[in-house]
Amino acid sequence: MSQIAVIGAGAWGTGLSIVLGRKGSHRVRLWAHEKEVRDSISSRRVNQLFLPEQAIPDCVSVTGSFEDALQDAEIIVSVMPSQHCRILFQKMRPFLKPGMLFVSATKGLEEGTLLRMTEVISLVAEADRGFQPRIGALSGPTFAKEVARGDPTAITIASSDSMLAETIQRELSDPRFRVYTNTDVTGVELGGSLKNVIAIAAGVCDGLGLGHNSIAALITRGLAEITRLVTACGGRQDTMSGLAGLGDLVLTCTGGLSRNRSVGVELGRGRKLPEIIAAMHGTVAEGVFTTHAAVELARMRAVEMPITAQMDAILNHDKSPRDAIHDLMTRSAKSEAPM
Question: Both 300 and 219 in a single domain?
Answer without folding.
Answer: yes
